Amino acid sequence: MSILIKNGRVVDPANKIDAVNIQAQAATIIDAAGKIVASGIIDIHVHLREPGREDKETVASATAAAAKGGVTTVLAMPNTHPAMDCEDNIKLLQGIIKKSALVNVLICGTLTKERLGQELSDIAALKKVGALAISDDGCSVDSDTLMLEAFKKAKQAGLLTVCHCEDKKLSGKGVMNLGFNSTRLGLRGISNESEYKRVSRDIELAAKCGAPVHIAHVSCRESVDIIAAAKKRGVKVTCETAPHYFALTDEDIVDYDTNMKINPPLRAKQDVAAIKAGLKNMVIDAIASDHAPHTENEKDIEFDRAEFGKIGLESGLAISIMELIEKKILSWQELVNVLAVNPAKILGIDKGTLSVGAQADLIVIDAGKEFILEKKSIVSKSKNSPFIGRRLKGLVEYTIYNGKVIYQG
Ligand code: DOR
Ligand code: ZN
To answer: Which pLDDT score is estimated for 369?
Structure first.
């Protein structure tokens, strides 16, 4: 069955198109007058929680949330139970995806067995079974020699290494950004240094063996500077940030809202400015949600004891429109680049464009539509969003995956 989307403003930076589309004949017609038509979002940092923590989220619930948020491809992070550290576990997840995924789910394997940072996973085997990248996300490998070995093996296997950059010796028992606000709230701080020192180390190790490296969830200004300098000297480094790192600061934790407890933490104003500048000047390649669902039991407790993480699949586009388009930081073309075109390039997948003949993964967005993010309307199994109750702007009207309408707003 064919679908015609007519009268929409097509934003397709890969083909240098920004124009109102023409008319033709089709079985289903979607009138997108006044709307944006773009590639489906490719979100390269998503915690699906299945297998193991189906009380937080499942492949079915996460991909339904993705569809609502305009996301048609996700890269599933490997910190599940069991972790994605061997062929059997990846096959288990692939079986679940086959049965219950509503959007394209790609799998990230682990760098080390059980993500313990002690012994490398069989990286070639992970590639063979279909992993798209490897990461110990949630943890960083402390040993320089083991990390160098991982980069070498990943390069041999043709896999991208995704780095969660955190020196635990420095971040310790911190729960929020280190600074005036952590002191004022009486909470232990996490320094910028605990992130950027590890960014620097991982880039150096990757450069040493010529392996590509992707830095996950960049949150602070020094990390942006280090990545910019590495790119300048030709290192194969890419990176992502998340909407909360350009929409919120540590000042927003005024009332100990644990939905704002995230790792890396919400930083200071200067960091937000650096993240926005990094998106503008293309040092930051991608926006990913770092969708990290947690149950109420794990969040509705003291700040110190609450889990790190927030959901983001359903709010990422609106936050990006409000903070980047409305505030004139990025053009629509530039936004689609960081949401779809570049993430596809990072993963080496043939998506992110509206080229003739490309798989029809696309979204229709009403960029001016306002809505209040309500807990009861959240599709994700977990409701840990710091934006609940806020007025957001930019609503997905249709999500089309592989030529089929999978969500209609
Ligand atoms: O806030 C976070 N939550 N940061 C991470 O690195 C892991 C994630 C999770 O899995 O909950
Ligand atoms: Zn992480």
So the answer is: 97
Look up residue 78 and give its DSSP letter. S
The whole-number pLDDT of residue 23 equals 58
Q: What is the CB-side half-sphere exposure of residue 7 using CA atoms within 13 A?
A: 8
For residue 308, the CA-to-ligand 2 centroid distance in Å is 10
Which position among 167, 290, 361, 366 bears the catalytic label?
290
Of the bound ligands, which one is closest to the alpha carbon of residue 176? 1
Q: How far apart are CA 253 and CA 259, in angstroms?
A: 9
Q: How confident is the model at residue 373 (pLDDT cuts 50, 70, 90)?
A: very high
How many CB atoms lie under 10 A from the CB of residue 36? 23
202 DSSP β-pair partners? none
Task: Give the integer Cα–Cα distance in Å for 322 and 317.
Answer: 9
Ligand nearest to the CA of 240: 2
* C-alpha R_g of the chain: 20
User: pLDDT at position 51, please?
Assistant: 98
Per-residue pLDDT, 359: 84
- Work out which ligand 1 atom sits closest to the CA atom of 293: 11
d(CA 379, CA 191): 34
- All domains of the chain in start order, with CATH: 40-352+381-390 (3.20.20.140)
Query: Residue 240 pairs with which residues in a beta bridge?
Result: 286
Could you give the C-alpha distances from 98 to 12, 134, 258, 305, 402, in angstroms and in order? 29, 21, 34, 36, 15
Ligand 1, atom 5, lies closest to the CA of 138
**Contact call for residues 324 and 277 (beta carbons, < 8 A):** no
Q: Token match 């232990």: residue?
A: 188
Q: How far apart are CA 273 and CA 177, in angstroms?
A: 16
Distance 348 CA to ligand 2 centre (A): 21
Contact 76, 44 (CB under 8 A): no
What's CA 87's distance to the chain center, in Å?
A: 24
Place of tokens 């020699």: 145
Helices (H), ranges, 31-143: 59-68, 87-100, 123-129
Identify the pLDDT of residue 326.
Answer: 98
